[in-house]
Amino acid sequence: MTGIGIQAHEPRDMWFSPVEVVSTFDKYQELGLPLHITEFTPQSSGKAITGGWREGVWTEEAQAEFAEQFYTLAFGYPSMVSIHWWGLSDRMIWLKGGGLLDKDFNPKPVYRRLVKLIKNDWMTKNLTVRTDKNGQVKFRGFSGDYKLLLTKPDGTKQTFTTHVTEKVINNQAFTTN
Questions:
Q1: Over the stretch 133-146, which tens digit does the pLDDT of each residue have?
Q2: 10 exposed, middle or buried (CB, 10 Å; 0-12, 13-18, 19+)?
Q3: Nearest to 37 by CA among 69, 70, 59
Q4: Cα–Cα–Cα angle for 153, 161, 1, nearest 5°?
Q5: Cα–Cα nearest to 36, from 97, 93, 83
Q6: Using an 8 Å Cβ cutoff, are 164 and 144 in contact?
Q7: What is the pLDDT of residues 50-88, one digit of tens each?
């Protein structure tokens, strides 16, 4: 796969402003390749936040807030295809407090916040739609695989899967005939 990998943890104490993040994505997008966040590690070390965008210290709640902001910007960016968190647990991570889990492998606020974003806010699920007069249905959803359950007028059911590509997100039509 061809693309551009962006390490998003330097400088380590900085809270990147949303304007700077999008501006950086824009610069790389000019190259015409898919973008990947290959290393993302916001911390919860108690150090002072730098960068001038946000004041305070890197607490677990600040880590969660920053991660939500960054993931939202990256997820919504047209050329972005992946985001990779760099380091699972605080136990043996290279950047103090940079894990999704604490040193005892318990979920931190950042873990819970990202699960909510990905599983509740962004995931298309349990969607019920009706076909139009031509036997087609349209829905808005994210790219990926979908399992569809079709109930025909006579009550029979049919299950099938389909894939929505990253180029076709809105108004993907499926014929029921």
A1: 888 877 777 777 88
A2: exposed
A3: 70
A4: 155
A5: 83
A6: yes
A7: 999 999 999 999 999 999 999 999 998 989 999 999 999
